[in-house]
Amino acid sequence: MNSISHRGRMLATTLLGGLALAAAGAAQAQTAAEGSEVGEVIVTGSRIKRAETTTAAPVAVVDAQTLTDRGFVQPGQALNQITANIPSIPIAAGSGSAAGNGQQYPNLFGLGPGRTLTLVNGRRMVTSSSGQFNINAPGQGDRVVDTNIIPAGLISRIDVVQAGGAAVYGSDAIAGVVNYVLKDDFEGVELDAQYGESSRGDYPVSSLRGTFGKNFLDGRGNAALDLEWSKTRPLLDYDRPRSNLGRVTVANAANTSNTDGIPITRENFNTRFTSFNYNGLLFSPAAAPLTNFILAVGGVPQQFNAAGNALIPYSIGVPGGIPFSSGGDGLAYQELASLYVGVQRFNANFVGHYDITDRIKLSAEVSWAHVKSRDPYANLQSNTVLNGAASGAGAIPIARTNPFLDPVRAQVAAGGPPIFLSKAWSDILYTREGTFETDTARAVLALEGDFDVGERNFYWSLSASHGETDGAQRGYGVWQTRFNNALQAVRNASGQIVCGINADASTANDDPACVPINPFGQGNVSQDARNYVNVLRGQDYLNTQDDYLATLGGDVLTLPAGKVKFSVAYEHRREKAKFVPLTANQRGLLDSQVPQVATGGRFHTDELSGELLVPVVGGDFTLPFVKALELDGSYRYVDNSLAGKEDVWGVGGRWEIVTGVTARISRSRNFRAPTLDQQFAPVRTALGNVGQDPCDFRYIANGPSPATRRANCVALFAANPGYGNLATFQNSSSNFATAQVTSGGNPNLKNEISNTLTFGVVLQPQFIPGLTIVADRIEVDLRDGLSAFTPVNFLETCYDAAPQPTDVCATFTRDALGNVVTAQQTTFNAGKVRYRGETYNINYIFPVGRFFDDADYGEVELNLSATHTAKLTTSVTGFDLSRTDNTVAQPDWVANFDARYRLGPVRVSYQMIYLDKVLFAQNASIESTPVPVIKENIRHNLSAQYTWENYTLRGGVVNLTDEQPSYPTRVYGDILGRQWFVGLRAKF
Description:
Number of strands: 52
Shape: elongated
Number of helices: 12
Strand content: 35-45%
């Protein structure tokens, strides 16, 4: 038996390896002082215990102090600071679609949230996903874990394995692994409160936390409970200067060619929808979005006044092409969606362990999280000339004899051609607000220990976990049949205004509950009418996961360079998901009245894995320029009941050339299995926008082959002369939710596969103590990608291909004016991804007194981290190619500089965040977009804390200079602007 204590060994078990690292640091220091052998720990990315914490694959670490310094109330905010991660924030994209559900996920290297695996203490978590795709909430449908459910108060550190990891941990570890390592020996009471808001006096952020822990039985056991709450409030587009611009791009009449230096589109500000507003416009003789069809008096277009009892002049504004204008009385673009959703979270977490013997430990984790997001603009009931009648959102046919028209009878005679009402409703729904709630519960029980066989030590673990996410999406919509009935108002024989169905000759269609609706103006819908037509819409979903894991590791034999180590594991996992639309959705009462069907699915997987670590050179056995050399290998066999069998592997090496200079390399084959959401999400049809129509004049010059795109669009318009002039064609459903989009799962999916290569160097020069320089190259090639085909992907596949694929082109239809009115979205194995880039980190820690005769002037830590993306190409369809490096979506360079100073009870931190100058989109030029180049964005954060006795007071300013996102974006930077926070922590 070696000199490491049995309890010391148990600080780093296979399952709780992440928990061990911080605790093991103290254990190592103690044993080193006693002249003992340095203890071994498990580092995220491997299940093998090792004394050397530098692995073949790159790992980044975020410590708990970072959350305190920056005033973060949930871990996702800290992950957003990692330069290799694409920030996830609950913001609307500005396309008119809703802001999403408030969930946030890591997305390493921009490969997609579903390709980053999330662990807690080295174990899988149940997915948070709702199974409902949302273009503004990437990750929906993926096996992702909302960062809001992770307890910020219990975090010891966050390990981020950059690229790969599937051979050790299984599916989803393609871009990398995020492992939240929780504290396991907390003792005492810690209370924490924080409040902050923006310098504009909005977006308040509040948090409260209490952590309670106790050691017992002479330190053999520990139990800790963490309770925390935080809340943010929503923001509207009106609340920030950038989003309040009401900016879209429209046709540029000044453009003469693709080579004249004049963009094909121009900026349109104070954007309004020409053909509707909250008061309502009458169109005649047809429901078409043409301004000359708006009812006019004396040649002046008319609208209803707010009271609905008179027609008043309607200003069209400056036309910008259907459906937009600049200024005027149309509905403001800012009314379509919120800027930020508000999120409230409650977390309760228990962790505990008990040393049954010196060599066997029992541990448990129990967690519950309730997260609720609020979007005040989630639902907008509108009936406009931009939509077809079958959608349920088309213009309303109004009988000229409608009694609610009596006040304007002089302008609207009882006889004449058909008239149609085009409007958005401010008073028909109980509320526009939509909510999204999840309750996530998880329990883990683990038994672990170690034993010796001769001079060799072995460690083992058994664990079982069960997790559930119970989700609910809610909002209000109108019961379409009742809505239609209530709109057809007439006077009965007594002169009362009633529903037409109750006054006609038939009694078969009578509905005594029907209350007529006055659709003209605002605030004229009675409460009884609202009660009659409002119905709750949404869905419930339940994800469950059961995971059983057994591991065994230890020493195989001893070589001159050290011990050959191994780890083997068996994992059995069962997952289930069910999606249950609410009654109104299932009955088809809403919108286009297409019923939604409850659905669900399940799978199980059995997986065997093994790792081997071989020291070739090291210890007392060295060679010139080979101070140490070790090789490692890993293999995993997967048998998934739905996706089938898979073999994945990894190999790597670490070469310490001389003291302080280490090179490393790793190669791996990784995979991601299709999720239950992707396979079994319910079929639903709802209004949505279709994104960039390739035949829209604004986008016809884009794509992998603009000439092919243009040729196909020219042929389309030649065959359909009613579509008008291709040179000015603007699809209304590109910017407004006017298309009927049908989405659902695909049960015929298979695994996606990636090949990953990393290599780099770690420098720790002895002549500069405290300096560490790390640089790594990351290369990922993915095939058979699980691609979320949105309407725009089907459109691009149709028009960017020659010959055009008939089956793909049949997934959408156009109306008589060329607007896309029906479309589909689902998942296919068609994607390809290629990533090339590097990560860099320079860290320098030194006592200031080093330069002043070792006086105690405190300690300084300087850290520079950067990620360079040299190439990121994505093919959703398999033959299209989109390159997003050097764009807003994936900057070439992202860098953070941190400076921290500590002296006794005082701590001061500064951070600079840098985003490189990029293109607005792939191949953007002055010919294609009015602002093709997006300027660099630089933000500064400053914070400080002071500790006295049992209390720590902290405060800080985020975005010190109130830097707005680089124009014209709302995401390339921080649209919240300058924010401040103050917090107080008490420890007893």
